[in-house]
Amino acid sequence: MFPAANPQPAGAARAPLALSRLRLAQCVLGLVLSLVVLPWAQAQSMRIKEVAAVQGVRTNQLTGYGLVVGLDGTGDQTNQMQYTSQAMNNYLQQMGITLPAGINPQFKNVAAVLVTAQLPAFAQPGQSVDVTVASIGNAKSLRGGTLITTPLKGVDGEIYALAQGSLIVGGAGASGGGSKVQVNHLSAGRIPGGGQVERAVPTGFLGGDSITLGLNSADFATASRVAQTINQAMGQGTAQALDGRMVQVRAPADSNARVAFLAQLEELRMEATVPMARVIVNARTGSIVLNQAVTLSPVAVAHGSLSVSISSTPVISQPNALSTGGQTVVTEKVDIKIQQEPGALIQMQQGAQLADVVKALNALGATPQDLLAILQAIKAAGALNAELEVI
C-alpha cells in the first residue's frame, strides 16, 4: 500500500496553470503590440536629411546653344531658320572651311538646339553629367542625331562643362501620303553622361566653424525639433534655430571630421510634424490635392447642374409651282431647352478627416471643375480648415 498523497483543493492545482497561461497571453499580446507599434512609430519619424539640407550645397543650372547633325532630312528648314545656317557656317569656318560668297546651302540634316544640364554639388573636372537637348527651330525629329561639342555656361557666363554625344529620343514617327503617325515627343532627347565638367563651383562648405541647415519648407515647429534632435544627440548648444527656415549647427573645422559629422547628423531621426492643412487647386487641369491635415467645420453643401441647349433647324418656304413673283424664303426654327438637375443636400460633420471629405465630395457627383467652385465656397463660408492655394 502506497501512502496516500496529501489532499489539495482543486482550485489550488489550477491556479498555477491559469497564472502561467495568463502570463503567456500577456507576453504574446505585448509582442503583437510591439510589432504593430514599431512600424507605426517608424512611419511617424523621419531623418533630418529628408526635411533639411546644408545651405549652399546645391546644384547649378547650365545652358548652351548647339547643333545636332546627322538627321535623316528631318532638320531645320534653313531658308526659314537663318540662325541655323549662320551657326553652321561659323562652325565650318572654325574647322578651316570657308564657303564661297553668295552660296546659301540648305542643311536639312542639321537642327539648332538648346542644351541644358544640372551641375551637381561638389562636381569636379572630368566627371560626367546628363544633358537634355531640345529643338528651337522647325526640325521634325531629332532621332538619330548627334550633338557636336557645345559649351555649357552658368549664369555668370563662365563655361563649366562641354556636351557632346548621340541623342536618345523616346519617340517614333512616320509619315507619307499626307498621313502622319507619331508616338511621344520627337523634338527633344537626352544624352546620358554627355556632359563633361570642366570647372568646379566653389562652395563655402568648409568655411567657418558652423554650417547652416535650410529646411525644405518654412515651419517653426520643424526647425525647433531639428535643433532639439541635434542637441540631444550631439550635445547641448550644438544647434540653434535661427528662424522658421534655418538652423545653425557648430561643426568641426577639419574636412574629414566635418564630413563624418554631417553623415551622422543627417541620419538622426526626429518626430514628424503635422503638415499645414492645405488644398492645392490647379485651375488649368482641374486637379485637386488635399493633404492629411485638412478638416471641415459643420457645413451643408448642395450641388446641382444647369444645362442650356440651343438647336436651330433651317426652314425653307417656296412659292407654288404656277405662281408669279414669288420668292424663296429661308428661316430658322430655334429650339431652346433648359434642364436643371436636382442637387442633393449633404451635411458634413465637424472635424471630418480627409477620407470623410473625399467621400462627401464624391457623393455630390461633381466634376473636378465643379469641385473648384465648391471648395472655394466652403472656404468662403469659413468651414474649410485649410489653406486654399490655386496654381
Number of strands: 23
- Shape summary: flat
Alpha plus pi helix count: 6
Return residue spans where pLDDT drops below 50 for at least 5 consecutive residues. 1-22, 24-43
Overall number of structural domains: 3
Provide the helix percentage. 10-25%
The average pLDDT score comes to 78
Q: Secondary-structure element order, as H and E?
A: HEEEHEEEEEEEEHEEHEEEEEEEEHHEE
Oligomer: single chain
Strand order of the largest sheet: 3-4-5-10-7-6
**Content of β-strand:** 35-45%
Spatial separation of the terminal alpha carbons:
97 Å
Radius of gyration: 36 Å
Main beta-sheet strand count, sense and barrel state: 6 strands, antiparallel, barrel
Structural class: alpha+beta
Would you write up a description of this structure?
- This protein has 391 residues and is an alpha+beta fold.
- It folds into 3 domains: 60-170 and 185-197, no CATH class; 210-271; 278-313 and 331-390, no CATH class.
- It is built from 6 helices and 23 strands.
- The protein has helices spanning 10-43, 82-94, 220-234, 255-266, 354-363, 368-380; strands spanning 45-47, 52-54, 60-69, 111-119, 128-135, 146-153, 159-166, 172-176, 179-183, 188-197, 210-215, 239-241, 246-250, 269-271, 278-282, 287-290, 295-296, 299-303, 306-317, 329-340, 344-348, 384-385, 387-390.
- β4 and β5 form a beta hairpin.
